[in-house]
Amino acid sequence: MKFPVAVQPYTIREEMKQDYLGSLEKVAEIGYHGIELGPPPEGMTIGQQKGHLERLGLQVISAHARIDVLTDGLDALIDYLQEVGGGWIAHSSKFDSRQAVIESAAQFNLIGENCRKRGIQFLYHNHNWEFTRYDGEYAYDILLRETDPELVKMELDTYWVKRGGEDPAEYLRRLPDRCPLLHIKDMEPGEEQFFAEIGEGILDFNDIVKAAEEIGTKWLVVEQDGSRRSAFESLEISFRNLKKMGFVE
């Protein structure tokens, strides 16, 4: 049960603004194998970004994108991913009705088809609001049913499934061959349900990683939206704990 482990740089968003290359270096120093990363900041070419990442041994695995990028700038984003060697594009949405979920699902199928034509896989990344019920059914379950499993795969987020009131490992087992990237983050005990470093909270990562292996997940991706420590310290603790648990490739 060993996986390559990537980081979602939303965790270090402020640090990246201050020192882009230095932040990437720290991620690599901790031991992460990959990163979910979009095109480089102004003043840096994709070639330069790629050179830095290769020097650090960091693989771009995917990029996250807003809906306007997916509809109006998809080809440019795919060009970027193909240049740096990434294979996935992920997206998150919010829905305010059952109909909105169904309409979004139809749009995601089209985006997924456009991605597939160019050899990229489209993923949907959840938060907790997909566990709102419409006519007794979770938005997430409607989305799963209304999207083509070949065109729209999932990037399940363990923390947000738990925050939505469900068991992350159980949900993962509903996604055979449909969750290539798994966002992992832990949750503190208590009412606030604040984010925690992997292995420092209440989620059962032994069961989660076992489920990920069963369904064919390719990468574990560490993300921590907020931290009581410095962001890099949190990333280090998560990586160290994953290693202790025997989950790091």
From TrEMBL:
Residues 24-228 form the Xylose isomerase-like TIM barrel domain. Gene3D superfamilies: Divalent-metal-dependent TIM barrel enzymes. Keywords: Isomerase. It holds the Pfam family AP_endonuc_2. One of its GO terms (molecular function) is isomerase activity. The keyword Plastid does not apply. The keyword Isomerase applies. This is Sugar phosphate isomerase/epimerase. The lineage of its organism: Bacteria, Bacillati, Bacillota, Bacilli, Bacillales.
